[in-house]
Amino acid sequence: MNLKQLEVFIKVAESGSFSKGAEAAFITQSTVSQHISALESEFGLKLLDRTGKGALPTEGGKILLERARKLVEYAREIPVALARFKGIEEAELTIAGSSIPGEYMIPAALPLLISRFPGVTIVLLQGDSRDVLGKLLAEEIEFGVVGGRFEEESLVFTPLAQDELVLIAPAGHRWARMSGITKEELLAESFVLRETGSGTGRAVSKALRQAGIDPAILKVAVHLGSNEAVKRAVMAGIGVSYVSALSVQRELEQGALIQVPVADVEIKREFFLVERRGRELSPAAVAFKEIMMEIYAEASLKGGA
Q1: Which Pfam families does the UniProt record give (predicted)?
Q2: Are 271 and 100 in contact (CB under 8 A)?
Q3: What is the CATH number of domain 3-86?
């Protein structure tokens, strides 16, 4: 069965005549007969009753006619939809971000994308960095934004922006009266940390090792699955934590949390746009990627996103 056969069948059934169907399809009557015979052979059913007055659909033919009309209609819409897609006039873009990109960076870029391309619908998924890469490898998304580069040959990591991870403590903590603390004072506190697999957790562990601190000796009170949960736990006095400076600006301004410098410990990490190697992005994905690069290249020049 192919689309041409269905189109010919529709014309014959609607006109009630092989000759009129052939005329409407701009083919010979013998070619029409071949198309109808092919359909009847494939389905094992008689689809048209040939009478002296013409050709009428059988009961099986009526079932085919109803569905064939829908198929042909959808097929005719395909070139129009693809033409719109090529012009980014009508498209759906599915992307994903790890915690900070998904909660802060990507949403900040959405207004610009929507203003430039109002026909694009965005589906934004979230997870930790490994979740995002898994979705990318499974081809569930077109690209992702994660905190850190991973060893995966089938993926391409493009640097996007830098982030600083800052140590936070609850308002009223004894550290609030200090201009900074030592590494020894840091180790004396209980910690609230992100779950295994998060980019934040990987960046903190790496920076502490570089500062001569073994992350394994931290006193961890709890592991939590989101930045919001971490901040609430710190505000409740469960422990201190390292979080992205992007995620804690409001709480610092409101005085709900304090930021505490640690001597000889500075934690920065880079965010990356990630896509599958050798796979062409859709026009909508290319447009959004360019907008993300535009926004965060400017932010980085001002001292980090």
Answers
A1: HTH_1, LysR_substrate
A2: yes
A3: 1.10.10.10
CATH topology classification for 91-160+275-301: D-Maltodextrin-Binding Protein; domain 2 (3.40.190)
Please report the pLDDT score of residue 264 as a whole number: 84
pLDDT at 151: 86
Separation CA 37–CA 70 (nearest Å)? 21
Per-residue pLDDT, 87:
66
Q: Smallest Cα–Cα separation from 93: which of 290, 282, 296, 294?
A: 282
Domain range list for the chain:
3-86, 91-160+275-301, 161-269
Say if pTM beats, i.e. exceeds, 0.70. no
- In the block, residue with structure tokens 């400017």: 298
Q: Which CATH number fits domain 161-269: 3.40.190.290, 3.60.120.10, 3.30.110.30, 1.10.3720.10?
A: 3.40.190.290
Question: Residue 25: pLDDT band by 50, 70, 90 thresholds?
Answer: confident
CB-based burial of residue 133 (10 Å sphere; 0-12 exposed, 13-18 middle, 19+ buried)?
buried
Distances, alpha carbon 197 to alpha carbons 40, 129, 130, in Å: 57, 6, 6
- At 195, which amino acid appears? E
Alpha carbon 142 to its chain centroid, in Å, reads 6
User: How many CB atoms are located within 10 Å of the residue 254 CB?
Assistant: 9
pLDDT 10s digits, 120-139 = 899 999 988 889 999 999 99
